[in-house]
Design goal:
The chain is an alpha/beta fold. Helix content is about 35%, strand content about 25%. It contains four helices and six strands. A hairpin with a 7-residue loop joins strand 4 (about 145-155) and strand 5. The chain is elongated.
Length: about 200
């Protein structure tokens, strides 16, 4: 009887140890360029695919010859999905890739207020007149680059099954508008679709 009790205690202890080890936190470094998905929702791997899918065709577009280097102003990608997605990362990544290509010049609209404040400060007499920034010398944008992120989500109907499937479709439309004429001179779209399944019971 005593041996049975000892074996029982040892078995319970082993199970408890396995459970604790399974619940312990574990951290692993991963390559941000690798595709890693835990569900069907948008994640950082999708950002890389979207940026690559939009930038490469834009750089090859005949409407923007290599020698011209047009001046662009980029407005944030609009999020029309039902998810909380930081589209600012997509906007910044597209701008960064285009700047590094050397094919375009950019106006930083986010620094306009700071530029204005600094210019006002310099005009108050605190800066050497020979070094003051002269007004009316800023570059003017020739094109507006904008985008819209949309999604469609489909779930399996409610009925008994061991796994529940979910499909999500994403699309990002990129538009280039001539600031002088208002004409849309370039459009492109990148699409992502993913299906994920998860057990009805589980963590």
């Amino acid at each position: 009887m005593k041996n049975i009790f000892i074996r029982f205690v040892m078995g319970v202890s082993c199970l408890a140890l396995i459970f604790i080890m399974g619940c312990a936190a574990h951290t692993t470094n991963i390559n941000p360029k690798d595709e890693v998905h835990y569900n069907a929702s948008y994640d950082f791997s999708d950002k890389n695919r979207i940026v690559e899918g939009l930038v490469a065709p834009l750089l090859a577009a005949p409407a923007f010859p290599v020698e011209k280097k047009p001046i662009l102003i980029v407005y944030p990608v609009v999020n029309e999905t039902s998810e909380h997605i930081s589209t600012g990362g997509i906007t910044d990544a597209i701008r960064m890739r285009l700047i590094k290509s050397g094919r375009f010049r950019f106006i930083d609209e986010r620094q306009r207020e700071n530029i204005q404040e600094e210019t006002i400060y310099q005009d108050q007499g605190f800066v050497d007149p020979a070094m003051r920034v002269q007004k009316g010398r800023q570059l003017g944008a020739e094109y507006i680059l904008s985008g819209t992120l949309r999604s469609i989500k489909n779930k399996q109907p409610e009925q008994w099954r061991l796994n529940k499937k979910e499909r999500i479709y994403y699309s990002l439309d990129l538009t280039m508008t001539d600031l002088k004429s208002g004409e849309i001179v370039y459009v492109d779209q990148v699409e992502l679709a993913r299906e994920a399944s998860k057990p009805i019971i589980g963590w």
